[in-house]
Amino acid sequence: MERPMRVPRPSPRTRRGRRSRSAPMTKVALRGLAAHKARLVLSVSAVMLSVAFVTGSLMFTHAVSGAFAPRGSTAPDVTVTAPQAGTGGDADEAARQAARGAPGGGTLPGDLLARVRRVPGVRTAAGDVTVQSASLTDASGRRIDAASGLRLSGLTKGSVPVLAGSWDAPDPGAVRLTSGHAPDGPDQVVLDRDTVDRGRLRLGDVVRVVAVPGTFQARIAGIVDFRTFSSGNTRVYVDTATAQRRLLGRPGRLTSIRVDAAPGVTAKELRDRIAAALGDTASTLARDPTGTDGPQGVGDVAGALGTWMLTFAGVAVLVGGVLIFNTFSMLVAARTRELALLRVLGADRRQVGRSVALEALTLGFLGSTLGLLAGVGLVAVLEQVIAGLGVNTRHMSLGFSATTPLAAYGVGVGVTLLAARLPARRAGRVAPMAALRDHGEPTGGPSRRRTVAGAFLLVAGVVLLALGRNAIPFGALLTLAAFVMLAPVLVLRAVPLLTAGYVRFLGPVGTLGRRNTLRQPRRTAATASALMIGVAVAAALSVMAASSRASMEARVDGMFGADYMVGGKSGDVSIGKDAVDAVRRVPGVGGVVRERVSPVTLTAGGRSMNLKLYGDDPGFPDAMRETYTGGSAADALSHGQVILVDEVARRFGVTVGSRVVLRVPGGRPESLTVGALQRQEPAGATIGRYRTAPMVGIDLLARLAPATADSRLFVSAAKGADPAVVGAALERALSGYPQVTVQDRSAYKAFVRGQTSDMLALVYGLLALTVLIAALGVVNTLALAVTERTREIGLLRAVGASRGQVRWMVRLESTLIAVLGTVLGLALGLVWGVALQHGTDGTKSVLVVPWLMLAASVAGAVLIGVAAAALPAAKAARLSILNALTHD
Q1: What positions does the domain ABC3 transporter permease C-terminal occupy (predicted)?
Q2: Mean pLDDT of all residues belonging to the chain
Q3: At 287, is the pLDDT very low, low, confident or very high (cuts 50, 70, 90)?
Q4: Which of 86, 467, 702, 790 is deepest in the core (most CB within 10 A)?
Q5: pLDDT computed for residue 293 by the predictor
Q6: Rounded CA separation 834/540 (Å)
Q7: Who wins on pLDDT, 89 or 779?
Q8: Going by DSSP bridges, is the β-strand pair 188-192/215-226 parallel, antiparallel, or unpaired?
Q9: Residue 672 lies inside a defined structural domain of this protein
């Protein structure tokens, strides 16, 4: 029985011997890294990309928060808006929407400002008029307001609202006057710098403001600059009287009152005092203590990008960890004799293991440092991306904080050491007598225990995926772990099938490529698993996107009863009476169904909920073919009854014939009979409508909320009229109303496809980086494989193999690994995609598998395999026959 040689331990009285042995081991580890520069570069690159994802995500999120801080610190202590009745959880949000001038938000009487100023603790109070229903053109009618939207937050081109209002109470934390002077009179306006630059305007130019009360012209008297993030909103300021008359259409009314507290009075205390003084005549909202109530839309974009970045950071870290583990496992196997010789020379197990751990530490430190720098570059790229989406990023700082380097080195060094832990332990167990034997990793296949455990995880994961909803993430994790554990078995089964065709065509070269792939199934599986992860995520998202898009298009075909829909391309706008009359006058128009929307509080059975309330003409059931589960929708709209979504009705315990109470902001409670029930559609299945919104007749809503305007029109062509001709006429008739668009079924479906394509473009861009990390793993594996098979390659050359045949052998091995990882990833991703499609609240009616994308993925895998093999194949072909035969 082999007995390892023992080296006497140093005396406790002196530790010089231990230090003298540690120093050479440190040199051995560092020289081992320096001797394999290509391997070092590839491994460091994997760590660098993983760390760049993490640090870039943190810095970007911190930068956005920092950009919001100035706004939060100078926002009013208390905002007073129209009453937001009810106790539902959306009351504060409703107040914020009202303060921003959201459609239907309600108004305040102007004399309420004097009552607020008399409240103890008020330092300053200013009335504000702000609306989101206007649009801006130059003197010739060319639209010059927000030209690009925030697609990641659900907004699209043309949908970023124009914020038009009074200059007397501008937010000092958001803008500052840099040119000209404040507006003075009905013929003067102040615009923001971005809009002026976009429209190539200057002081004194004439612009047209298109508002619900009518269109008016004014000259540019001043220009303001944004102090913080801007989400692409155009800002239009006029004096208060002009804002009340020409923007709001209600002289003497305000949309909100901005209040600042006197020294020593907190925002909450002041809010309570104002609320007590005003009673139920208004709603009060204290300043957000976090200071993160930023401009509309930007928080959504930052949150979406931050979430996606952190998600792919996790994927990149996982892929990088697999690559590092595979690299160090191969290194330990290839250096068995070297490590055994160190044991013969007196190194103990701990020292050998520590030398491998030191290599990992050095590699992780270098990768983390470079990844930290790359993260800064990634933030710069993201800044340009969101700037292209219409966000003003001039005030965005780098976002570097003390946690950034901690996260960089914690992830980079921690993941590298964790991935190298098992290989380091293996290195410590190398026996000294191994120096006298041939070395290399055992060629045995997967263990029975690993196969059984993987099969168990696979079954458990599939069951969780089948359960849907909250169980899907856990099912995805279990199936991923199962595929990683079963990958060696799948290698042994799949490689012969994948190579059945070309082995006969390529002859001995193909046979050798296949045998080299099967020689180390665990190594092949580990390398392919890194690629599998990225492909699986891409495939799942592709199935989800394609299915959701097809489901939505089918939904549009089934629901879109009118020929055209006139309104905002995404979101609610206000359409004035003159625009409605222009539509009615278009030749060939047969019917026009109007729709309005307003906040409302629904009360029944002692419970209340804040919702949106639709007001529609009685012809709405034909214009938009919703599904009704009880009662008659047309009768309910005609006879002053309310239509409830069935899920909301069940929550309140009411049915057809029951009584409920509706109250709009600033209005009185109205008791109505439930006349019909509408089926609640899944999230994403509605056509620009709120899923839980009740519905009443438009005349009833006009009485409950007189300040509301039409937000959408459903237009049908008259019998015998050509819908295409009618659509062109509608476009011409509404050319003077740039805040609205005309869409038919095809246009709306194109809009849905555009939203999906924009999101997928970002997703695939991030996934490409994770695939790049996996490709580095293929290169690393092949490079090490060529090194350990140097003598074998020399023998092949000696018996007549040409350089080209050697290159093809390595290329085939690389391509097999890439195709195998892609095929496994596609299989796993398809399962995930189907589970997500059927198990979430999204549209479920149509399941689409993007076969073209899957075929492109396989073709891309072949290209990755060929590209990854370029350097290792060239190295193998350049080997000298004599040197290779004498290689040890």
Answers
A1: 311-429, 766-880
A2: 76
A3: low
A4: 86
A5: 45
A6: 8
A7: 779
A8: parallel
A9: yes
pLDDT > 70? residue 388: no
Please report, to the nearest 10 degrees, the dihedral formed by the alpha carbons of residues 272, 278, 280, 285 taken in order.
-40
2 assigned to some structural domain: no
3-state secondary structure of 219: strand
Answer yes or no: do 158 and 268 share one domain: yes
User: End of a domain among 678, 709, 739?
Assistant: 739
- Give the orientation angle of helix 298-334 with respect to helix 336-344, to 10 degrees: 60
User: What residue spans of 560-625 are helical by DSSP H?
Assistant: 577-584, 620-623
Q: For residue 254, what are the β-bridge partners? A: 108
Domain count across the chain = 4
Residues 436 and 448 in one domain: no
Q: Which of 500, 573, 641 is nearest to 146 (CA)?
A: 573
Please tell me which residue, 455 or 210, carries the higher pLDDT value. 455
Query: According to DSSP H, which parts of 641-714 are helical?
Result: 646-652, 698-704
Token pair, residue 213, equals: 């009360």
316: tokens are 């990149």
517 within 8 A of 816, measured Cβ to Cβ:
yes
Instruction: Give CA 766 to chain center in angstroms.
Output: 11
Tokens of 159: 């949908």
Q: What is the pLDDT of residues 245-278, one digit of tens each?
A: 888 888 888 888 888 889 988 888 888 898 888 8
If DSSP codes are grouped into helix, strand and coil, which group holds residue 87?
Answer: coil
Cα R_g (the chain), whole angstroms: 34
User: Which pLDDT score is estimated for 290?
Assistant: 45
Decide: residue 155, CB within 10 A, 0-12 exposed, 13-18 middle, 19+ buried. Answer: buried
Residues 437 and 448 in one domain: no
Closest by CA position to 845, among listed 625, 620, 557, 646: 557
Q: Which residues of 344-366 are buried (b: 16+ CB within 10 A; e: fewer)?
A: beebbeebbbbbbbbbbbbbbbb
Query: In 3D, which of 141, 138, 131, 144 has the Cα closest to residue 195?
Result: 144
Half-sphere exposure of 843 (CA within 13 A, CB side): 22
- As beta bridge partners, residue 253 has 109
For residue 90, name the pLDDT band (cuts at 50, 70, 90): very low
d(CA 884, CA 792): 8
Q: When comparing pLDDT for 51 and 730, which is higher?
A: 730
Strand order in the sheet with 283-286: 122-128, 256-261, 78-81, 283-286
Rounded mean pLDDT of 839-867?
76
Query: Would you state the pLDDT for residue 584?
Result: 93
**Are residues 256 and 125 located together in one domain of the fold?**
yes
CA distances, 721 to each of 247, 535, 557, 641, 734 (Å): 37, 51, 20, 34, 19
- Tell me the mean pLDDT in the region 754-769: 67
Which residue, 441, 471, 490, sits at the end of a domain? 441
- Whether 319 contacts 533, CB under 8 Å: yes
Say whether both 554 and 681 belong to one domain. no
> Which pair of tokens denotes residue 532?
């599998």
Q: Give the residue with greater pLDDT, 276 vs 792.
A: 276
Q: Is residue 620 part of a domain?
A: yes
CA 208 – CA 192 distance, rounded (Å)? 15
712: enclosing H helix or E strand: strand 712-717
**Phi then psi for 692, rounded to 5 degrees?**
-110, 10
pLDDT band at 306 (very low <50, low <70, confident <90, very high): low
Do 432 and 453 share a domain, yes or no?
no
Q: What is the model's pLDDT at position 559? A: 83
Residue 170 above 60 pLDDT? Answer: no
pLDDT score for 379 = 73
Q: Is the pLDDT of residue 315 over 50?
A: yes
CA nearest neighbour of 572 among 679, 710, 386, 397: 710
In the block, tokens 């006058």 appear at 585
Q: Which domain holds residue 581?
A: 569-739
Domain match, 85 and 229 both: yes
User: Do 663 and 610 lie in a common domain?
Assistant: yes
Pair of tokens at residue 13: 């009285």
pLDDT at residue 345 is higher than 50: yes
